[in-house]
Amino acid sequence: EPAIEVRNLTKRYGSHTAVQDVSFRVEAGETLVLLGPSGCGKTTLLRMLNRLVEPDSGVVLINGQHVRSQPPELLRRGIGYVIQQVGLLPHYTVAENVAVVPQLLGYAPAIIAARTAELLNRLHLPPERFAGQCPSQLSGGQQQRVGLARALAADPPVVLLDEPFGALDPITRASIRREFRELPELRRTTVVLVTHDVTEAFELADQILLLDAGRVQQLGPPRELLLRP
Ligand code: ADP
Ligand code: ADP
Fold first, then answer.
1. Ligand 1: which of 10, 13, 56, 212 to mutate, most ligand atoms within 8 Å of CB?
2. What is the ipTM of this complex?
């Protein structure tokens, strides 16, 4: 069975249809990129996967389970989520930010500490130097890496990323994107990533879903996509 299955999702805001009759499947371990211009419905679609937005019709299944049968808070603990404005807790250290979800899930402190150190190392934030720092002491790229570490800390089966590199300068963006592709944690996780950047989509996607005014325009692996100018 697919890790994520979406059937006929529709979401309206008043008379405006933001997402219309969208269906797709993502196999475990694959990365689906939602691509399209600003306002085409990418964020709305992504947020219906973790119930930050409730659809008007259609269903979402994660590992075969209807998300609407799961309490939203519990559901979200099981799904990593990163947005452009990272939203790190400003009065918590880097290590405390990364530990939030594993703590909520009741992981043992020793396991949390080991996992945090491993992820920070992997994301080029050596814990000796960064674990005790506060988010305001970090660059934008470093904060984004902490956000990613936080989303991955509890080894979620699914990670949702909304323009995760959007706030970064082009050079940092390109280098984080390369690291990101190589992360073993991400390779074993099912990822849905939102971007309006075609290069980024081609670099990261197993499948690209091209959205146009809320509808699926194309869906397939990057090499099969026809991009009209
Ligand atoms: P994207 O992520 O592709 O930029 P969004 O999903 O944010 O697109 O928005 C899709 C459309 O729905 C846009 O026209 C946007 O203005 C509208 N929209 C998004 N969120 C809301 C909301 N909470 N209330 C009303 N309209 C919204
Ligand atoms: P994005 O960066 O994905 O385009 P936006 O800046 O469009 O996100 O949206 C930020 C927030 O505002 C979201 O919570 C979204 O649901 C809400 N929003 C977006 N468009 C509208 C709208 N037309 N009316 C009301 N809320 C909106």
1. 13
2. 0.71
